């Protein structure tokens, strides 16, 4: 059916995707779909909905462009805020454009579109997206993944290096031009150094220095659980529908993701904090620690 929107207005077509190889799986034209049939979203946004952005869209006088939906699953690829805005407007249906690719391709397209337009992805969103793409496309080069998620290739290399137990470490990588290339030896050395917490010259200058022996005893007190276990817990929580599709669950994931991952991260922050900011940050850190302790106590009571 006719939709009354030009290609540039759809938000999921034309120049905003550019020459993406997954672009051709977007079906032309939009249809009216009952909102009740939408099953959720394939969003790279760790923190979920931005309520203020939703209200801004709902209060605008213009018609909102169609949302993009993964046809096999009925999950929103792009336009979750537009969907929420339609609900605020009292709408029962919404204009939808369908995408026919795989779930992995749908996530890639969601990242591309959210990077290209609309509400910007946070750094945590982009790093989480990079980790997921590394797990589904380990053969892709750091530069290729960096281009998709909007991060420097050195940052992707560090994320890859810290995920050696979860992501296959291949001898070749496929670049942005589609060609496979041999991984240089120093790249492998950098990955090994990163996974051990080392400070290799090939790593980003912003990465923390190696932990000293005196830090080892504080690591247990600071982190509580080993980092690999922490990562698996966060992955399970992100994939749990009861967490992912609830506002409180998405807020919780955002809080957990924002916490420094290792003792070295805490040390780096403590060392690099400007002298005149120490008192302010210390007061907030103590306040947050107290609130986390309250949450832990409440959860412990529920276990009894």
TrEMBL record:
Alphabetical list of SMART domains matching this protein: ParB
Biased amino acid composition, Polar residues: 1-19
Domain of life: Bacteria
Basic and acidic residues compositional bias, start-end: 216-228
UniProt region (Disordered), positions on chain: 1-20, 160-228
Domain ParB-like N-terminal: 31-115
Database matches in InterPro entries: ParB/Sulfiredoxin_sf (IPR036086), ParB_N (IPR003115)
Protein name in the entry: Streptomycin biosynthesis protein
């Amino acid at each position: 059916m006719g939709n009354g929107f030009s290609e540039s207005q759809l938000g999921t077509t034309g120049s905003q995707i550019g020459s993406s190889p997954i672009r051709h799986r977007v079906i032309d034209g939009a249809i009216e779909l009952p909102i009740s049939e939408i099953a959720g979203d394939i969003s790279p946004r760790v923190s979920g909905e931005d309520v203020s952005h939703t209200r801004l869209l709902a209060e605008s006088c213009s018609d909102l462009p169609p949302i993009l939906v993964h046809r096999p699953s009925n999950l929103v690829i792009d336009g979750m805020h537009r969907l929420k805005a339609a609900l605020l407007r009292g709408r029962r249906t919404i204009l939808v454009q369908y995408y026919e690719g795989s779930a992995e391709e749908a996530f890639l397209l969601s990242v591309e579109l959210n990077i290209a337009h609309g509400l910007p992805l946070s750094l945590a969103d982009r790093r989480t997206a990079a980790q997921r793409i590394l797990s589904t496309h380990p053969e892709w080069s750091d530069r290729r993944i960096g281009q998709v998620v909007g991060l420097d290739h050195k940052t992707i290399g560090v994320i890859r290096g810290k995920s050696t137990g979860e992501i296959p470490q291949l001898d070749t990588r496929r670049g942005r031009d589609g060609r496979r290339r041999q991984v240089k030896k120093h790249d492998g050395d950098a990955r090994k150094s990163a996974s051990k917490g080392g400070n290799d010259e090939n790593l980003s200058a912003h990465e923390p220095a190696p932990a000293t022996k005196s830090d080892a005893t504080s690591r247990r007190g600071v982190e509580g659980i080993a980092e690999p276990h922490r990562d698996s817990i966060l992955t399970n929580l992100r994939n749990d529908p009861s967490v992912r599709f609830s506002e409180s669950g998405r807020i919780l994931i955002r809080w957990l993701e924002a916490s420094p991952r290792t003792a070295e991260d805490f040390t780096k922050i403590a060392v690099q904090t400007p002298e005149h900011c120490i008192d302010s940050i210390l007061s907030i850190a103590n306040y947050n620690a107290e609130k986390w302790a309250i949450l832990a106590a409440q959860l412990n009571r529920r276990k009894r």
